[in-house]
Structures are given as structure tokens and as C-alpha cells.
Design goal:
Elements: E1 14-15, E2 21-28, H1 34-61, H2 64-72, H3 79-98, E3 102-109, E4 113-118, H4 125-135, H5 143-152, E5 156-161, E6 167-171, E7 176-180, E8 185-189, H6 192-203, E9 210-211
Parallel strand pairs: 6-9
Antiparallel strand pairs: 1-2, 2-3, 3-4, 4-5, 6-7, 7-8
Helix pairs in contact: 1-3, 4-5
């Protein structure tokens, strides 16, 4: 790949001619099971909502005591969470294996948004870096078109608009910044050398956010 000089902001982040900061992050899905933890959080929330709904029904029917003793305090209450836990681990293992145990993300960030582009399983980190080189004007040819194709082929994108962000959570040990709107929950990854730049950039542009 050609050298990318002049627009390097941090060790891995580059400022492209269109005014956007871009970087490629490779997450080891075994050593850093952040995605699995997120799945558990969702499952836990679903379970709590289900139990709350059941409790409301029992309150209306006047069976609160029996519901607490026969359901909430019963050993059987652990069966459903146990099944969900086992299935989530198995499912995560299958997905991780399909991706070669690497989760590749191409991030884009400007004054208004940060975008998390999940790349398809056949995508390689070198492809994203080659596109960044093209965006910086270091190489010619068809790379810009290739870059558009890379984005078009992304599995999914999570877009956080800074003006709508409600909380920004610092998890430097996991190389993660949680950027949360009311509904949209975005995960922004950055290497240690890039982390403070991304953290300061995002938090300084989220006027309504609670920073944790």
C-alpha cells in the first residue's frame, strides 16, 4: 500500500479530503467479546421486561404473593436465562468462526456524525487501508470507486448524530466508546494511540450528552 502522508491525525486515523476522519479497526472476537456482552445486555433487558409484565398481570389478578413464591423465588426461574446464556454463547461462536474471529469496522467521523460500518466477513483490514490511501490522494486509478463499493457492501451501519446523543460512555480498557441516542446504540472502537482523540472529538460535539 502507498504511504499516506500529510493527513495522519493519530497512529491510525486519517483526515480525508472530504473533511471526514476515517480509520479501520479490527476486533478480535475471542479476546474481546464485547459483542457477546451486548447480546447478554439485550437478553437481560428482555427478560426483565417480561417479568415486569407478568408481575403487573399478577397484581391485577391479586396473586402477587403466589407469583413471588412460586415463580420469582423458584429455582426454575433460572432455566430460561440459562438456556439463553448457552444459546447466545453457541450462536456467538458460530458467527465468530464464520468471520474468521475478526470483526472489521470502517469508521467515519465528521462534525455532525460518527458512522460504524460493519464490513462483510470476507473483508480484510488491508482493503480498508488501501481505500484510505486512495481517499488521501496517495494513489490513483479506480480506488475511489472501489471504496464506494466497500461501503455499499457493508453488512450494516450505525449512525450517531451528535446533536441527538444522550450518553457517551468511556470504556478505554475495552478500546470502546459507547455513543447512545434514545434508540440507536453505537459502539465506536479505537486503538489506545487513537482513543483520546476520538473521545475528545465526540464528547466535545455532543451538547446534550451525559458523559460517563
Amino acid at each position: 500500500m502507498e504511504k499516506m502522508e500529510g493527513q495522519k491525525v493519530t497512529e491510525n486515523i486519517y483526515l480525508c479530503p472530504d473533511g471526514k476522519y476515517r480509520w479501520v479497526y479490527e476486533l478480535n472476537m475471542i479476546n474481546s467479546p464485547v459483542i457477546l456482552f451486548t447480546i447478554w445486555k439485550i437478553f437481560g433487558l428482555v427478560l426483565l421486561v417480561l417479568l415486569a409484565f407478568m408481575l403487573i398481570v399478577e397484581i391485577v389478578d391479586g396473586n402477587v404473593v403466589s407469583f413471588v413464591t412460586d415463580t420469582l423465588l423458584s429455582p426454575g426461574i433460572l432455566i430460561i436465562p440459562g438456556i439463553m446464556l448457552v444459546l447466545s454463547i453457541i450462536g456467538y461462536g458460530i458467527v465468530a468462526a464464520a468471520y474468521g474471529f475478526k470483526y472489521i469496522v470502517l469508521f467515519e467521523m465528521d462534525e455532525k456524525t460518527v458512522v460504524h460500518n460493519q464490513m462483510p466477513k470476507q473483508f480484510k483490514k488491508a482493503e480498508g487501508l488501501a481505500w484510505l490511501a486512495a481517499m488521501l490522494g496517495a494513489v490513483a486509478g479506480s480506488y475511489p470507486a472501489t471504496g464506494a463499493g466497500i461501503l455499499a457492501g457493508s453488512k450494516s451501519s450505525s449512525v450517531s448524530r451528535f446533536e441527538n446523543v444522550r450518553t457517551v460512555v468511556r470504556r478505554k480498557g475495552q478500546k470502546l466508546i459507547e455513543v447512545n441516542e434514545l434508540v440507536e446504540k453505537n459502539q465506536v472502537y479505537a486503538e489506545d494511540a487513537d482513543y483520546e482523540f476520538v473521545w475528545n472529538y465526540i464528547t466535545s460535539r455532543c451538547p446534550k450528552a451525559k458523559v460517563k
